[in-house]
Amino acid sequence: MRAHTTVGDLDLTVLTDGTYLLDGGAMFGVVPKPLWEKRTPANERNQIVLGTNTVVVRSGKHTVVIETGIGNKLPEKLRSIFDAKQLLLQSFHAAGIRPEEVNVVINTHLHFDHCGWNTIRKEDGGVEATFPNAQYFVHRGEVEHGHLQLERDAVSYISENYDPLIASGQMTLIEPPAGGMEIVPGVSVEVYPGHTAQMMAVMLDSGGRRACYISDLMPTSAHLDVTWVLGYDLYPLTCIEQRKRFLSRAIPEQWLVLFTHDHLHPMGYVEWGAKGKPQLKPGY
Ligand SMILES: [Zn+2]
Fold first, then answer.
1. Measuring CA to CA, which residue among 40, 119, 24, 41 is closest to residue 74?
2. Distance, CA 113 to ligand 1 centroid (Å)?
3. CA 9 to chain centroid
């Protein structure tokens, strides 16, 4: 378990599939290395350490899982390049949460590092649902995009993370309207495009408070500057606009921001810093 908190009546537990390594340049796009490495040091191969944060939300009626890490289906070569740790099931166990308890799984998008434990590779080579009693929710456009297998991002979409669940009826494909869509009471999704065309944020609302899993729109607390978008983003200009849209509410309304890839700061509040730039509030 990485962190625990409550938002109104909702109980939030942050679990992890472990750290992994990605190229620092790819994670900071056009930002020069001397600037980004002050926030995020790189190793001798220019890689930076990222987390894979899963949030378990319990309302008393529902147990909801947001994002499922990298999983155990990566080919060995990729697993070793990323130094993926495959710890999510141990992390569930350590927190005393059984996969069978989970009613709902939400994937913000279908890149391999967000939906890897949707299914588990068995010893006979097949796959099965990791959360046997859950209904999975994902944007229809993400599935369609993954199926295109485009040159730019085919490597990010591993069909065994979703196609078997669609075939079995365990995955529901949704198209949330502009104002968002409620999945269960207190848990809703809203499209924040830019990283992909249909990436969704997850909003958690209870007792007049809100937490937001903003996913890869702002993957770590080092990505709060609106122009520090990722090399991986498909629509960088849209990301800049959507980051402004996010901050224009997250700061004045003091949303608890849940970061998908920040291993050191899985959650925090954002404020305007001295130079007019958004920063993590110290001391959380
Ligand atoms: Zn990601």
1. 119
2. 5
3. 22
The answer to whether residues 108 and 202 touch, using CB atoms and an 8 Å cutoff, is: yes
Residue 216 CA, ligand 1 centroid: distance in Å:
5
Cα of 31 from ligand 1 centre, angstroms: 18
Annotate 13-70 with DSSP letters as a single string.
Answer: EEEES--EEEEHHHHHTTS-HHHHHHHS---TTSEEEE--EEEEEE-SS-EEEE---S
Distance from Cα 82 to the centre of ligand 1, integer Å = 13
Q: In angstroms, rounded to a whole number, what is the distance separating the alpha carbons of residues 18 and 190?
A: 27
What is the 133 CA–ligand 1 centroid distance (Å)?
25
Q: What pLDDT, in 10s, does the model give residues 195-250?
A: 999 999 999 999 999 999 999 999 999 999 999 999 999 999 999 999 999 999 99
| 274 burial type by CB count under 10 A (0-12 exposed, 13-18 middle, 19+ buried) | exposed
Q: How many C-beta atoms lie closer than 10 Å to residue 89's C-beta?
A: 17
From CA 48, how far away is CA 41, in angstroms rounded? 6
For residue 54, the CA-to-ligand 1 centroid distance in Å is: 11
Question: Which pLDDT belongs to residue 1?
Answer: 53
What residue has token string 């939400």?
A: 106
Q: Is residue 268 packed enough to be buried (19+ CB in 10 Å), middle (13-18) or exposed (0-12)?
A: buried
CA 260 to ligand 1 centroid distance, Å: 7
